[in-house]
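#onboarding

Welcome to the new folks! Below is a worked example of what a typical request in this channel looks like: someone posts a single protein sequence, and someone else replies with the predicted structure as tokens. Don't worry about understanding the tokens yet, we'll cover that in week two.

Example request:
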Amino acid sequence: MAETTRDRIVKQAIDCIAQNPNASLEEIATAAGVGRATIYRHFKSRNDLNIVLKAAAGEKLHSAAVPILERNIPARDKLIQMVQKMIPLGASLNVSTYFNIPFKDENPRVMETYQKHLDQAGSLCAQLKNEGVVGKDIPLAWLITSLDSLVFAAWEKVQSGDIAPNEAPGLVIQTFLTGMATPKTREWMTQNKDNMK
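Example response:
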């Protein structure tokens, strides 16, 4: 099926806003290969465009995650597959969760897609905790935020050319599961856990 002008605007706007949360309509129009007036033919206002972007980004993340989360495999394997699938969707992750964090007065459609993302990430992180992959004492909110942050950072560094696309998933998994500490530092962290609260 051919991509519509509206779809192209949404796709390019997600990429533009992920790289620059203050991207202008002119920048979005240029990236989409249309004029600013064309954007207004498809969207009533910048707010209308933002709502569509956030909902579309959230739906893209949700659709990508469902097949992985429904598999009857260990949590660690789900984590690896999710990271591999989500890094290329880093722009959507960014638009749906970071620069446009929903508030209580947000559009219900946006809130629904945002909540789906939180529920999916929470389900995976809870399974990781239950299977002993990550510490049971780490709050789910911290696990979700850390994972989202690492995935977005990987996407950003792939986009900038600082890391290769095939390196990114391994870096995210390694950092998420073990951090960058040496064994000696990990030992120190264990011994000084109470001092780091």
